[in-house]
Automatic annotation (TrEMBL):
PANTHER family, A to Z: CYTOKINESIS PROTEIN 3
Gene3D superfamilies recorded: 3.10.620.30
GO terms under cellular component: cytoplasm
Family annotation (SMART domains): TGc
InterPro entries, alphabetized: CAP/Cytokinesis_protein, Papain-like_cys_pep_sf, Transglutaminase-like
Protein species of origin: Cohnella fermenti
Pfam families xref list: Transglut_core
Domain named Transglutaminase-like: residues: 174-230
Protein name in the entry: Transglutaminase
Amino acid sequence: MGEKGWRRAAAAGVAIAVLTAGCAIPQGQPGAAEVAAATSGTASATLVSTIQKQLNARSEAFSVQVSGSASASVKAVDEAFEAAMKLDDYVNYTVKSYNYNSKSNGKTATVSIKVVYWENATQSAYVAKRSKEILAEIIKPGMNAHQKVKAVHDWILLNVAYDRTLKKHSAYDALASGTAVCQGYASLAYRLLKDAGVEVRIAEGTVSTGAHAWNLVKLDGAWYHLDTTFDDPVPDVKGRTTYSYYLLTDEQIKRDHKWTQTYPAATTSYQKTVAALKAKDASRQVFYSNLEEAVGYKYLLADNSASTVQEFALRIKAAIKAGKTTVKVRYVHGAGKKLDLQQLLDAVPALTSIQTSTSSFPLGNADDALVTITFET
């Protein structure tokens, strides 16, 4: 689900910031949209605030004044630019690239800044407008933060598909075209959740396919990982929602995600959180019960788990007795293993045919898998 070239990497002390994977940066002298004075050649609060305002407005060219030489001024602006972006995750992941051009008389320098965005001012305004409209549709009076997170998660999965061309990186792309890469998924989730009053972050790191972005969500004082991209696997299936990467701990998600920045620790089991809420919040018990079912917490129970052919056979026999033709079972330590279907057929004589499909199960052990068995009798 990762993709190359989705994030620019700035190097302090140089006049040009470059994108990963060799993405091109427009060159040339930028025009000045604003000249602002700073008191020193460091990342002062004034300089950071000035740059932040320009980024919020999606200004493509502006200038600032700092004291010092050309090289010192560029370093100060670079530090301030990075600080300004970190003040808002949405802005941070809207910036595609930027470069500087500094002129100094030895005492004062004018640093001209040119910024390229994944999403311009008009597009960001469209996202803000659509966010309000979407939330008006999916957020109902009386919903708590847990219900809002699920509503946003599900809306994104049902209305956005992964961009296999790897060209669409923004929340605007996700809304306007219905497709985006992980950065677009994470940015859209951030916009919707923040507008819904839920504290949220965008996380960046790597997965097996390369660079990746997802979210961190804070609920009742505890942080959890939320990866809407990984819950919406390729190829896209209309109407499908999955929850393998829904509100995970650091331990659960680090099996296939590595983060490259420092983020709040996610150490609270959401399974235990939901169980506690279900016990004390009678008005939302149905929601919590349905959530437990959707996320798959029941597969952590012994009755829905198996590690041997004999245990799988017992689960199939129980399904047959209940009149079912499919059964889903957690294969304990079964990732990378194949069930011996002939042994299953021998163990359950009533079966005439059997098929299996396997998916990951981050909620369990590091090497657990979720196996769906379809059969005929």
